[in-house]
Amino acid sequence: MKRFDIDRRVGPIRLRAWFLVGNFGFNALALYGLSRLMVEGSGAGILLVGVLGTLGCLAVLSQPNRPGPDGPDDA
Amino acid sequence: MASEAPGRPPGYPLGDPIPQAVLQRQAADLARARRRGLIGGLPTYLKLGGPGFIGAALTLGAGTMTSSMLAGAEFGYRTLWIFWVAAGSGMFMMAAMARFTCRGGFNLIEKQAELHGWFLARVLTASIGMATVAVAFNFGQVALGTHLIDSLAQIDGPGFPQEFNWPLYIVVTSWIALSYGRAGSGGTRLLEAFMKWSLAAMILCFAACLVVVGIDWPAALKGTFMPWLPSGVMGIDLFIASTAAAIGVADWVLYHFTAHVKGWRREHEGLARVDLIAGFFVPFFIVNFLVVSVFAGTLHASGDIPRSAAELASSLVPLLGETGAQYAFMIGFLAVPVTSTIGLCLLSAMGIHEAFGWKPDVRSWRWKVCLLLPQIGFLAAWYPSPVMLIIIIAAALSLTNNIVGWSFYMLLNDRKLMGASRCRSRIWNLGVMIQITLLNCVAITYVFNRLGWWQS
Fold it and tell me: For chain B, how many structural domains are there in total?
């Protein structure tokens, strides 16, 4: 099975950096949901999506960089 | 690429280089300390450590103390848990700084500029995260420090007004900060010893006050280990602000550079980690625990609670009763702004040099001017702190701290840069990401507040 390589380049930046941006987006979504929930009593769905997205991003971003097929451990 | 060869050129040639013989002797001492175990080797670690103590002394400033005093006065012991969570969540990024210094051996901001661009490195990290913070936040330290000198003189005497005592404050703090990196490693040792003894003084003095006012141990232990927050948005604000404010860009980069000044390399990484725990985490938590407990035992639920550090201190002193306890509180409290001012002076000099890409030289006039720039805060002896300036800088910090964190996380996981020394632990990466997520939340709640979506 092909390994999920978080450090491959996708567009201008590495996938790891895209996940950082994604994490930020989900953090904002969670806080927006929370603010709606506190002020209007609605927004639980948005909060849930934000929290789950944040947890997903954290799980991916916690992966260390593994030695790849393209080079040795030490550069 | 990570350079790990012994005898490599220092990554931050700030002061007189530490002779190789001294570094080799330290490496031998550390190897012996490792064999004795953590407890047996602790005296060696404490003797050789230092940057962690400087970091704790910088973080424990007027702002942190005001938050602790308010927390104790408003919520009693119930928010004690926040302090170890705040400092603990920051330790992972601090360990990354130790890794960059000890194994990377490079100047972090230079590498950041090379790999992530000059704006992130020179503007967001060096200018906003270090230099402007140092200048703006020293007003509060000087205001508090000079107020405390006056209060101390008033206990048994006529007082020593701020308008006259500020030269004493400025001269002492400037002299110690200017000595850093000079006279072989003597100046560095002087500053580190001053920070260590000041932290010890804070702990002893606040502990003495706590003995006088007493402590409700069951409530304190419950508050330390059982998370509690005030209800509503206020509780979330309190949690995000407290956890994210404890350790930020200034603490990260200062630790990296002060560890470079010590000449630390691969063999010192274990020492660096113990230094972070024993020098940073433990004093940070103990001082906050003591201050919160003193205020929880005195001003808690007393009705109208003052909002500034100086007013809070003034309200507390009569409640301490005994003159000895009043002196103890004032002396311990005075160590707070004094050590922070010294740390901010170092931060200012390092930040400005990195912002412009200048080579630091502690003997140059340029270094001295940059180091003394935060002392413009002496104006706080006469005038109120420049609130607008502080608000603007705090806003810039809130919005950019997290982006600098992203950059450092990427560097820690950069195989080309760090080689085999890159982060290889899922838990370490997760710890760093939790702190970054908290910093993201600070930036987002700041914007939401401006948009009126987040109402405390």
Answer: 1
CATH code where residue B73 lies: 1.10.4160.10
Of A16, A24, A73, the CB nearest to B413: A16
**Best residue in B437, B442, B446, B456 for a mutation probing chain A (most A CBs within 10 Å):** B437
Q: What is the pLDDT of residue B81?
A: 92
CB contact under 8 A, A65 and B423: yes
Closest by CA to B216, choosing from B72, B88, B314, is: B72
pLDDT in tens, B142-176: 998 998 899 888 887 888 888 899 999 999 999 99
Distances (CA, A) of B308 to B63, B163, B302, B338: 9, 19, 16, 18
ipTM for the predicted complex: 0.91
B18 shares contact with chain A (CB less than 8 Å): no
**Whether this model's pTM surpasses 0.80:** yes
Domain carrying residue B92: 20-386
Q: How far apart are CA B450 and CA B347, in angstroms?
A: 30
B395 found inside a domain: no
* Within-domain flag for B439: no
Q: Does residue B125 form part of some domain? A: yes
